[in-house]
Every structure is written in C-alpha cells, then in structure tokens.
Amino acid sequence: MAADRKLGCLSIFLFVALCASLFVNFVLMIAAFQRFAGMREPEAIPRFREILLERGGRGSADKIAVITMRGLISSSLPGTVSDSMVDDMRAGLQQARDDTHVKAIVLEVDSPGGEVTASDAIYSALIKTRARKPVVVYMDSLAASGGYYVSCGGKYLMASETTITGSIGVIIQTLNYEQLFNKVGLASVIFKSGKFKDMLNGARPITPEERELVQSFIMKTYDKFLGIVAKERNLPADLLRNTIADGRILSGKDAFDNKLIDGLGELDDAFAKAKQLGNAPEAKVVKYGPPFSLSRFLRIFGEADSKIELQLPKQLIPQLESGRAYFLPSYYAP
C-alpha cells in the first residue's frame, strides 16, 4: 500500500515536472522567435490575401489580380493593411506589379470621387502599374468625378450601360452661418496674419477678392482634370470643355458614345479582357482582400456582445470637410 502511494506521488511529481518543462520551453521558444523577428527588417509593403474568384486552367500559374476601390476617395479614411485607403491602393497595385504570376489587373471602381490630391495619387500609381502590366478598369454602379479621374489611369476602361460616370469638375464648399449667429447673438472673433487667412470663414460674407482667388484655384485644378481626360482619351480639350466636361453625369452608354470609355459589359467581361490583354487565357482570377489578423478576428467576438446599434453606412452621404477640394458630383455636396 505504501509502495503504491509512493509510486502515485512520484507519477504526479513527474507529470508536474513535465508540464513545467514544457511551459519553460514554450516561453523560451516565444522569446527566441521574438528576437529573431526583431532582427528581421520590417516588411516595407503590406501584403493582401488572395481570394479565388475564378479557377484557371490546369497547370497554369498565371493570375489576374482584382483590386477594388469603393466609397469616398480620401487620405483620411483608414485602410485595411495600411494607414489610409490611398496607401492601400498603392500597396495593392505594387503587390500586383511585383508578382510575376500576375499577368493583368482589373481595378473595380465604385466611387463618387473624393479629394483631389488623393485621386491624383491613385491615378499616378495606376500609370506606374500600367507601364508594366495591362490594367482594365471596370466601373461598377458609380465611377464619377474623382472615380473617373482615377479610372483614366487604366489601359482599357469598361462600364455597364447603367453605370453613373462623368461629372468632370471640381468643387469646394463652405457654409455661411452669419445670419444664424446674428439671431442668437453670437459673433466670431478672428485674429489673422493676412487678409486671406480666413477666407472660408462662414461667420461673414465672402469678399469679391476671396471669391476670385478660390474660383481661380478651382479652374486651375479643373484644367488639370480636363487635361488628363483629353490626353488619356485622345479627345480635344476644347471640345470636352464645351460639351460633356461641365460637371454633368453620364450613363455608361453615354460615356461610351462620347469615347470616355472603351467598352460596355459586365465584370466577367472585364476579366476576359484582362486575360486577353495579359496574354493569359488560362489565368485564374484572384481578388485582393485584407490579410487574416488574429486581433481582428478576436475583436469581432469582443465587440459582438458589447452593444447593438443600427448605423447608416458612413459613406452613404460623404461628409465633406470645409476648405478641401473635391472631385465629386454636385448632388453629393450637402
């Protein structure tokens, strides 16, 4: 009996010792991994996860990469793998450029436009990508103003007949609340270094000089937009200025008739065109999505039972910031 008790105690001791040893080894392994990871140079470009949309031919390693741009174009909006949606677009395009198996790219656009500088940055990234691989732009429900500006960076532009596009123009908005201040007895007190420093101050009327200055800025930015459309679509700038480049929106069919796009079709047709231009008929089609993140996965469960609320999509009605220039249709300005 005593021998059995001693044997049992010894077994428990050995089991506890084994567990302790495993725990210590696990901790040491994590520490070693962290030191190894710390010695590595940080990855310069975030990587997107590939989601299979269409299988390719057996034995073919060729790929068509699909990158999606949705919603308001703004450097203020956070990205899924980087600081902003603009950086996300740059990173996705570079990943497709650097992947030797990617033979062509489809950019799916569903956007009303957005900030001038952000739109220009994505357009420039598309031009850089187009120089190495074919880029087919597919305009979904909406690709207007800044959405069309970005689209001009593609090699081949395609839309459905009912796509809303066009709206070639620039807008800056401000709000004048001087009369409201007068009714409630409030006054704005401004200290400024120059007469134009508060030229979009809504607490007072805009002066003729300020109006001229802002309008001049608008027209210079518009001329840049117009010049890009004229160059990319091989159309006379004066013809555009006097016809469809006055801020009006166009259907996909009208855009095709006015040579703003190259073809009409659906997303599958854009895939087929990309395979043709990339000389990769057996290529599979993959869509770039956010990489798997354990913290994001756990956060979903952490937030699921914390509160339940109904919210409208943040980009249903874009909240324009005062003083910023936008490529947007007029009906998006509150």
Could you describe the 3D structure shown?
By secondary structure, the chain is of the alpha/beta class. The protein has a single domain (49-292, 316-332), classed as Alpha-Beta Complex (2-enoyl-CoA Hydratase, Chain A, domain 1), CATH 3.90.226. 42% of the residues lie in helices and 17% in strands. The protein has ten helices and eleven strands. The protein has helices at 2-39, 85-98, 116-130, 146-151, 178-184, 208-233, 237-242, 252-257, 267-277, 294-304; strands at 49-54, 63-70, 102-111, 114-115, 135-144, 156-159, 164-166, 249-251, 263-264, 284-289, 326-327. The strands form two sheets. Strands 1, 2, 3, 5, 6, 7, 8, 9 and 10 form a nine-stranded mixed β-sheet that branches. α2 links the parallel β2 (63-70) and β3 (102-111).
Question: Any key phrases for this structure?
Answer:
about 40% helix; about 15% strand; single chain; about 325 residues; 10 helices; 2-enoyl-CoA Hydratase, Chain A, domain 1
Write the layout of secondary structure elements.
Blueprint: H1 2-39, E1 49-54, E2 63-70, H2 85-98, E3 102-111, E4 114-115, H3 116-130, E5 135-144, H4 146-151, E6 156-159, E7 164-166, H5 178-184, H6 208-233, H7 237-242, E8 249-251, H8 252-257, E9 263-264, H9 267-277, E10 284-289, H10 294-304, E11 326-327
Parallel strand pairs: 2-3, 2-10, 3-5, 5-6, 5-7, 6-9
Antiparallel strand pairs: 1-10, 4-11, 7-8
Helix pairs in contact: 2-3
